[in-house]
Design goal:
The protein is mostly helical and 86 residues long. It has four helices and no strands. Helix 1 crosses helix 4, helix 2 packs across helix 3 and helix 2 runs antiparallel to helix 4. The protein is flat and about 40 Å long.
Length: 86
């Protein structure tokens, strides 16, 4: 399988984890997924200062700026595999 197929499998597997990951891990999964599928974050920061979830997601994704899509895919795959094998 190539990296894209392994990534798609990891995305599917992430939805069948036996335990829900903590918020830090969920942010990692989110930001790695966004970086792998869209590349660097070009979105404006959330305008609502009280929307903390959107703020944290935006910041987590922005921190990955410059990370290649392939590297983000591999890190996502590794993270999901670690969570699955627990």
């Amino acid at each position: 399988m190539d990296i894209k197929q392994l990534f798609e499998l990891a995305v599917t597997n992430s939805k069948t984890l036996t335990e829900k990951p903590n918020n830090e891990i969920l942010l990692q999964l989110y930001s790695l997924y966004k970086q792998a599928t869209e590349g660097d974050n070009k979105e404006d920061a959330p305008s609502n200062p009280f929307d903390f979830v959107a703020k944290f997601k935006h910041e987590a994704w922005t921190k990955l700026k410059g990370l290649s899509k392939e590297t983000a895919m591999q890190q996502y795959i590794d993270l999901v595999n670690n969570l699955k094998n627990g």
